[in-house]
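Action item from last meeting closed. Structure (206 res):
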């Protein structure tokens, strides 16, 4: 068979190559209810072309997925999102975004294996979709921070009111986030890393 005319397989883009200086890698999971912005966050902050498993929403999900408040949503993650960000020359975060619909939550078991921590994205228009998500993290004893994603029509609440509504201890950081913006998403990840560092320091001191 003659392969002389076959197209060459493109090589990786320069920004997709892991820096030679990287010495530490951490797995982080981005979780939240259906339609809170997980895919958007991974896509906005990832320095490589993100891997997504979004599919067009169809009538098959009608009556199964609760789209109250997000009726305009046309696509959904059915397996996971994957991205990568280098926080500095040595530390790299691998980001895994989970599907939000409860019918896909069986996939969470594998995604949480080896994860150091998590970011919980919250939409204040639909706080109730975050309750079970946070409960699952607490059951698994996965450290997490909460990012309040910015939506144009979302009501604004004081941090302590949100903490009470989500039944979170004082130690869990709650930060504002605009998942569409790289800098804002990066700040949420930095908040998680600082939180994990403080937890490790506390454990060592005790």
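Sequence:
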């Amino acid at each position: 068979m003659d392969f002389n005319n076959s197209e060459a397989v493109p090589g990786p883009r320069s920004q997709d190559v892991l820096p030679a200086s990287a010495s530490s890698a951490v797995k982080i999971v981005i979780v939240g209810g259906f339609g809170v912005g997980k895919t958007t966050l991974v896509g906005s902050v990832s320095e490589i072309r993100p891997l997504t498993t979004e599919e067009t929403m169809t009538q098959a999900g009608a009556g199964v997925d609760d789209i109250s408040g997000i009726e305009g949503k046309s696509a959904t993650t059915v397996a996971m999102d994957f991205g990568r960000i280098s926080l500095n020359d040595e530390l790299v975060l691998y980001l895994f975004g989970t599907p939000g619909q409860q019918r896909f939550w069986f996939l969470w078991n594998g995604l949480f294996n080896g994860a150091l921590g998590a970011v919980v994205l919250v939409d204040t228009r639909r706080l109730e979709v975050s309750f079970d998500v946070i409960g699952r993290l607490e059951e698994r004893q996965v450290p997490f921070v909460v990012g309040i994603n910015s939506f144009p029509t979302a009501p604004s609440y004081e941090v302590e009111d949100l903490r009470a509504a989500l039944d979170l201890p004082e130690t869990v950081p709650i930060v504002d986030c605009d998942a569409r913006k790289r800098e804002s998403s990066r700040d949420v990840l930095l908040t998680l890393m600082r939180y994990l560092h403080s937890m490790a320091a506390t454990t060592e001191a005790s």
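Note appended to the action item: The first helix runs from residue 38 to 45.
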